[in-house]
Amino acid sequence: MVFLDYGHNLWLAAIAFVVALVAGATGLTLTKDLSEKSLLQRKLAVALAAITMGGGIWSMHFVAMLGLQMPVLFYYDAAVTLVSALIAILLVTLALILLHFTRRTKATIVGAGALVGVGVLAMHYVGMAGMQLCQPIYTPFGVISAAVVAIGLCIMAFGVAYGSPSSRNIVIGTACFGVAVTSVHFVAMAGTNFVALSGTREIGLLISNEAMAIGVILSSFAIFGTFLWVGSTLLMPAGPEAAVPSRVLEPQATDQPEEVEAPLTWLPCERDGGKVRVPSRDIAFVRADGHYTQVYTMSGRYFCVWPITEAAKRLGPDGFIRVHRSYLVNPSKVSLFERGKDKGRCSFGAPGLPQVPVSRSHLKDALTAFS
């Protein structure tokens, strides 16, 4: 068996890495703060993120394959190539569903990262199986190395991006995702040899490198377009709710004689990578966000690592009440309570501060508190 000599175009390898980075940045940004959205918006965001990230994995692979330099002409089977793209999109979809429609824990984050790693690996080898007039020959070491890199780096990427939601962590997670997808390809290729074949064994139509280049260009334009749309959306003014003061919320000094007060109750929060203690008297409501919570004051929003059950234990003695399984409200901050037939809603009188729903099971407590 005579193995073919081959090499890679470094420019196309660099472009492939950029495609992977942009796909990761778009997908991770699209799925940020989804718990604030309606169910329909969450489904649409997850679907678009899955198509972007899965399509980015596929595009990165075939941009790099366009740079594969061999002494023989080769083609791709259209059916197998399409299946490879669908595999990547499907496994990324399953990973995002696990993250955004189940309780998010360390185990689910690891599971989601592993699913994406398997998707990257499966996409690569299925895509390689579509080569015609040229057959890849794999080594066990190459396959095992690619699997370890794929799963390990994807778990790291998702662990960083979803472990503690912040813009900085999304940037780091994007870098890990880009390195993971690109590394898998070239680690796998390093453990692959090629032999020339005299005939084809295609299932569908044959695709030349020129036709593949057109497909990859179109998919990359779609990914970059989505990235620009997401980026421009994030750069737009976010309204009063996003205008959070940078100071740490602590009791204000006064010239009045000191009074003996009960110890100040507060929640441990984070904002812009910094630790903040938010006093209970400044909190309007607390909203569950998976295994964590979002803490809303009259002027801004904070992230808290506590689950809502722990926040309720801390804030209960200060008069906070549960009005919904996902909401804890400070009655002193409620400016208007509106009752419907069997549920209600609370308003807070601050521009940009969302209303809080009152569920049927908690309506009685709300009526007592706001009467």
UniProtKB/TrEMBL annotation:
**Residue ranges of domain HTH LytTR-type in the record:** 267-371
Keywords, in A-Z order: Membrane, Transmembrane, Transmembrane helix
Q: Which terms does the record give in the GO molecular function aspect? A: DNA binding
Task: Using the record's annotation, list all stretches that form the MHYT domain.
Answer: 8-195
Which InterPro entries does the UniProt record give? LytTR_DNA-bd_dom, LytTR_MHYT, MHYT_dom
Gene Ontology CC annotation, any one? membrane
- Residues crossing the lipid bilayer are 12-32, 44-68, 74-101, 108-126, 138-163, 170-191, 211-230
Q: Tell me the SMART domains matching this sequence.
A: LytTR
Write down a Pfam family by its short name. Answer: MHYT
What is this protein's name? Answer: CO-responsive transcriptional regulator RcoM
- Tell me which species this is from: Palleronia abyssalis
Q: What is the lineage of its organism?
A: Bacteria, Pseudomonadati, Pseudomonadota, Alphaproteobacteria, Rhodobacterales
